[in-house]
Design a protein that fits this description.
By secondary structure, the chain is an all-alpha fold. It is built from four helices and no strands. The relative contact order is 0.23.
C-alpha cells in the first residue's frame, strides 16, 4: 500500500472505520465505548478532513470490536 500523504492515509482509515461500524449497526457512541476511546476522538477519526494521528493500539482496539483484521483499515475501497 502506498499513501501520498498522511492526510490521504487518515481519510482512508476514517472512511473504513465508519463503513465497518455502520455495517455492524453500531453508533459512534457504542463503538467508542466498546473500544474504550472517547466519542469525540472517534468522531474526529471518522471526519473527512481528519488530520488526527492514530496509534496502532487504538486501531487494534477498534478492529477487535468490529471483528476485522486491522489491515482492512488501510485498503481503499469505494464508500457510500
Amino acid at each position: 500500500m502506498y499513501f501520498s500523504s498522511d492526510t490521504e492515509l487518515y481519510r482512508i482509515i476514517g472512511a473504513n472505520i465508519k463503513q465497518y461500524r455502520e455495517m455492524r449497526n453500531l453508533t459512534q457512541m457504542q463503538l467508542a465505548d466498546r473500544a474504550q476511546i472517547s466519542i469525540s476522538y472517534l468522531s474526529k477519526i471518522e471526519a473527512i478532513g481528519c488530520t488526527k494521528s492514530l496509534s496502532i493500539s487504538v486501531l487494534n482496539q477498534i478492529a477487535n470490536v468490529l471483528q476485522i483484521d486491522i489491515t482492512e483499515f488501510f485498503k481503499e475501497v469505494s464508500h457510500k
